[in-house]
Design brief:
Elements (H helix, E strand, L loop, with lengths): L1 E7 L10 E10 L8 E11 L10 E13 L4 H14 L1
Antiparallel strand pairs: 1-2, 2-3, 3-4
Length: 89
């Protein structure tokens, strides 16, 4: 699984503390028998309220799917396709 956090860093100063404002999970569903190809479920989460310095709480915002993805294209292309697909729904 790939887990991508989206953080807001006030004034670009990490010492002020980053606030996670979103998260993306991309997980292989295990249904493809070809080791060169993958099928992935995608979940975009948004935060619930302020969470700076506290346990993070998220809710599902969007879902998507990437099928027949050639793994040789790498994680950034997988992320791009995952976001494109989830944002269409």
């Amino acid at each position: 699984m790939l887990k991508i956090s989206i953080e807001l860093i006030p004034m670009g100063m990490a010492l002020l503390g980053a606030e996670e404002i979103g998260m993306i999970e991309i997980s292989n569903d295990g249904t493809c028998k070809d080791p060169e190809i993958g099928h992935y479920d995608v979940i975009l989460y948004k935060r619930l309220g302020k969470n700076r310095g506290k346990r993070k709480s998220h809710e599902v915002w969007k879902r998507g799917r990437v099928e027949n993805f050639p793994r040789q294209l790498g994680p950034y292309e997988l992320l791009r396709r995952a976001l494109n697909n989830a944002m269409e729904t």
